[in-house]
Amino acid sequence: MTPIIQLGIGGVGRALARQIVAVAPAIRRRYGIDLRYIAIADSRGIIAGDPTVSEEQVHQILAVKEAGHGLDSMTNAITDRHWIELLPATIAIVVDVTATSEHTAPLAAAVSAGHRVVLANKRPLCDEYDLFTALTERGATRYEATVGAGLPVIGVLQGLLDTGDEVLRIEAALSGTLGFLMSALEEGSSFAEAVWKAHALGYTEPDPRDDLSGADVARKALILARTCGIPVPADAVSAESLFPPQLATVSVAEFLQRLPEAEESVMERFAAARAAGNVLRYITCITPDNIEVGLRELPADHPLAGLRGPDNMISFTTRRYHDRPMVIRGPGAGVEVTATGVLSDIIATAREL
Amino acid sequence: MTPIIQLGIGGVGRALARQIVAVAPAIRRRYGIDLRYIAIADSRGIIAGDPTVSEEQVHQILAVKEAGHGLDSMTNAITDRHWIELLPATIAIVVDVTATSEHTAPLAAAVSAGHRVVLANKRPLCDEYDLFTALTERGATRYEATVGAGLPVIGVLQGLLDTGDEVLRIEAALSGTLGFLMSALEEGSSFAEAVWKAHALGYTEPDPRDDLSGADVARKALILARTCGIPVPADAVSAESLFPPQLATVSVAEFLQRLPEAEESVMERFAAARAAGNVLRYITCITPDNIEVGLRELPADHPLAGLRGPDNMISFTTRRYHDRPMVIRGPGAGVEVTATGVLSDIIATAREL
Fold this sequence. Notes:
The structure is a homodimer of 353-residue chains.
Chain A: E1 2-7, H1 11-31, E2 35-41, E3 46-48, H2 55-66, E4 93-96, H3 104-112, E5 116-119, H4 129-136, E6 141-142, H5 154-162, E7 167-173, H6 176-186, H7 191-200, H8 209-212, H9 215-227, H10 252-257, H11 260-275, E8 278-287, E9 290-299, E10 311-318, E11 326-331, H12 335-352
Parallel strand pairs in A: 1-2, 1-4, 4-5, 5-6
Antiparallel strand pairs in A: 2-3, 7-8, 7-10, 8-9, 10-11
């Protein structure tokens, strides 16, 4: 059996648990792999198996979380021990689908003890560079879902590098929210109107500045660059923010109200691009020497110019894919497709154990 | 060490051997995997290692093949035994980069003896359905390079299926040659002119009917459908041919001369598509109930309509990627990128051993 400890049972975590329960019998038949939870943790408690968490217990955990409670509310919850103490003597897969930094050091400790890690959480890969290498050395950690959710990005990049290809340029649109906003501008909306609409429809984070700051895209850029072997320090990737500094610390309500203050600068860029026959996109561009994250004017025939709406798109120009790049495109967010990326990584890891 | 037997040392085979020699030290450092040839075979002889084929011997083999000779011309060549007799007691990876059917049954025998297989050769997967399942059961055979060369197609599809997603529709442009011809028509060329040009530039097979018959695309469609779990019999996928039956058996020279006889039917289809505001593409469409390979009119906003020139493009519409598909695009042929796909599969397999 392949023991799994899952950290986090929010939206992605619940989708993952449902997918694992659904496919476990088929995976057993197809690959002879027996995926079994030995523990599931949230920030307040751990449900540990005896020795494995039964399917019935998984459904109980899902019900408790969907009712808005913490796992500490369950009678058999562990609250006095850390998950790392539950790691078995055999090799386990630790899956981090939280959004916190708190597991970074324990995950590195688990790797150095010979365990394997699968991440949807970007934070552990965005800490000090030494922690990134500690987590990823010998391929101990997979993290496909951290960039583009279920789209094949990290695995493809590692495959190119492992086979001796050389990355010349990665160009990518990695924020569905910012893609949606750019398309709205092209359809005649003002920037503030577009943000209001995206916020009302739930396309943005509850605080839309989490999207508009570009910080999440910067984390993805950092992960891509480090995967390329570029030893980028933590916080060395700065993203262009789409709102002025005076709106950084006000309440969400006030921010939404004062959005027109962000309007002029974005709309000027948009108008200038359109006047030049170009399009405006919020993109990540990584070369061996440089990492840029921000609004860029692109010629109309650029691969990323064809992007509409909330899709992600990643273009790899390499020594082998030189004249014409390899391009991957599709929905890059959402709990189901993110869980798909995580589960693919779990299966790939389990096949190695 | 991970023992490799490579069948075929043509263009893709030589690119693969060069890539393996180049990356072996890095793969050893990165994953602790020691990729070693134990034998390399062409249709006339086998060079076997003692116990492994040295890097110097690999270079000798490359030189012999580049000079146009068979491996039987080398002093240490084996010509009286079959490669299957050279399989070791430990698990080996057998790599088929030939274009023949002759290895299909021995490859299935190797799999049933516990060995693993990596294919760039489509033929072994296009034989009887039982042979397909024998080769692929428990993931024993990887075959990423058979569709789209180095583009992530088969692995992505298997990842979707393994995680419980359901494929509703695969639409794909899988022939760079036919893509080139369609783009040429859009640029004002006639069909015969486009084929003559593609033939002169070496974009087609020596006999352009090998491309224009659609037979190679039909094989890729069969592999995709079978990977989806559809039990398609051998030869059950028929492709639309772009030349009339009376040109099927004439010489290549006569075929090229009489190409205008194929002109009318293609140009009529092209004109009709254009008049309706559509584009004409040679595509594969797979649903759970149907497999089609041929010329289709597509609306201008269809993902495959945006394709220009010789790129491949594959669009997966699934239960999870429903509103917007996952799309992969890029060069889908060429010895270097095909070898990349094969080597990625070899590394993934070696990590499991």
